[in-house]
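Meet my pick.
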Amino acid sequence: MDGLFGNIAGKFSVNIIIGNGQNVWKRSGFLHITLKGCALLIILGVLIFFARIIDVSLDTLRVKSMIRGKRLVVSMIAFVEIIVYTLGASQAFKYVMNPTVLLFYAGGFAAGNFMGMIIDDKLSQDSIFALVVTEHNEWSLADILRERGFGVTTAKGYGLNGAEKAQLKIVVKKKQFIELTKLIREFDPSAYVITMDVTDIKR
């Protein structure tokens, strides 16, 4: 009797009581497989998520490096990027119709773009050319910026109707750009700031 009870207890582990009092037994083996399958999908999704973050971040850095003409850096990034992408995508495409995997895949892609831009901004030593157009006293703004260590060139420009516009031309490091725009906005909230990447011809 004990042996029979032990055998039954080994096969069945969940006892559910429904409305009419009937006992409904579910096999522990089935539940174990289901839970194990869900856990594996989540683990796979997490791995795909981080693989996508890595390869998309590298893709963002590769494209920016390509624009700047850094051939060796582009080649090295492309080599690592395609390895990570192949490993991550090959697993994702096997289960692409599974909502969990698809969400992790898409989330990793979005996060990768975000992280790539942050990493580029942190690592980049490149400069930005800023053209500032203001209707206020450009000499006062130029003096404020120069006091904070920014090199400023002033010039005059003329609009469509011939109105005179003051222009300030500034070259700054990317990490200084936020400080520059803050100073400009404090002086003239309506000022226009146009930016372009600058390439050092000595490289």
